[in-house]
Specification:
The structure is a homodimer.
Chain A: H1 6-24, H2 31-38, H3 42-49, H4 52-77, H5 81-92, H6 99-111, H7 115-141, H8 150-170, H9 177-192, H10 202-206
Helix pairs in contact in A: 1-2, 1-4, 2-3, 4-5, 4-7, 5-7, 6-7, 7-8, 8-9
Chain B binds a DNA duplex through helix 3.
Chain lengths: 209, 209
DNA sequence: GTACAGACTGAACCGTCATTCAGTAAGTAT
DNA sequence: ATACTTACTGAATGACGGTTCAGTCTGTAC
């Protein structure tokens, strides 16, 4: 078998662990499955992570960091506050089988009884909200948005998205994905005192002339 | 030991199961603990419910029915559409240790991999949304509210509440409980085209003269 | 090439439950 | 009283799966 540096192996294990969490759930996922999928022995996982609990915590942390990096990349690619904001929300919103979302719902539940996980989630939420609040502030500074408190508005907007996402996960037929999109646009327009047309689609506002 | 009718015993077991779920989580809760708490043998639980999976599904169903009854009772006690709506939302909102909420977050997570649970949750969500939509319609008929689609508005309002509740569960210090209340009032006022003062507090609108 | 560190194996171990089952006893009908 | 149903016991069972550990192997340093 191939040998790898501890660092590289750990990252590899974390990735496979996240896959297994998505497939089998955070608590019901088995170390043996992670090992099998990597064509490696169960002992190796414990060798690198000590305990399953530890593995899960590090996997979540890893996923959180990955998501935050991705969020920043997504936002960097848009060129105005309005498009940046919508790009972030569109990425956050559940799409397809909502791969990413399942992990966070599992995590919410597990975090109810695990302080370490709870900390990871709280930090993630804070970062997310701050990123969104920053774009809003940017829009306010540019005279595009009007808002009482950017951080509060960011909290409400992302909370609405969380709530709608969960509904869709639990009950696929509750509403359509583009209804969700439309509601989100309406909410943002209201929160930020701007025109829906400025948010409606990436194209619409990236060609303002 | 006391013998009871199967019916009575089942209800008793379901109640204790819900307590154990709140304390230890849906998946990690043990049948032995339910039995011990009831001063009864583990075999009894299986005797009445066949399997743990079955027990959990029935417990959730039981909780859902309990909550719906409670919701209707809460709403019946208020006397105008505005107070009825806010009474429902206030009861739904997480308070104190958010006892009720933990179960539903666990359930969301478990439902990702279990069709039976998923069905229970989907039905519960539908019922909830319909109840809220009905009050909104009532308000519209009375000329108090103005809204595009009552069911959609109800979905958005309850989704926002779900999202905010989860945030509070995960990160207690994210915001204050009365901030949540305030945001909710603002959202409802906007959705329904009414005055915040009509919703602000139960007293305010139950003494309209 | 020799030595060493540290990645890795995989079989065995062991605690933890859900579930089984043979038996007991409390109600009920006759 | 007698027979019968059905709630209930509690010790045994068996599967599952995280963790251990003694030993192997591989890359690297000298």
């Amino acid at each position: 078998m191939k040998r790898k540096s501890a660092q590289a192996r750990r990252v590899e294990v974390l990735g496979e662990t996240l896959k297994q969490i998505r497939e089998h759930g955070m608590l019901t996922m088995r170390i043996a499955d992670v090992a099998t999928a990597m064509d490696v022995s169960p002992g190796l996982i414990i060798y690198h992570f000590e305990t399953k609990e530890n593995l899960l915590a590090e996997a979540l942390q890893h996923a959180a960091e990955r998501d935050l990096l991705k969020l920043r990349r997504v936002m960097r690619e848009a060129d105005s506050p309005a498009t940046r904001l919508m790009a972030a929300l569109d990425w956050y919103a559940p799409t397809g089988q909502a791969r990413g979302w399942q992990i966070w719902v599992d995590a919410w539940s597990a975090a109810l009884r695990d302080k370490a996980l709870s900390k990871v989630l709280a930090d993630l939420q804070d970062q997310w909200t701050k990123e969104i609040a920053a774009v809003i502030d940017e829009g306010v500074a540019a005279g595009l948005f009007r808002v009482g408190d950017a951080h509060d508005a960011a909290t409400r907007i992302t909370a609405l998205l969380d709530g709608l996402a969960v509904r869709l996960l639990v009950h696929k037929g509750a509403f359509k994905r583009d209804e969700l999109r439309g509601w989100l646009v309406g909410q943002v327009a209201w929160e930020l005192g701007t025109e829906e047309s400025a948010l409606r689609s990436p194209e619409a506002s990236s060609r303002p002339s």
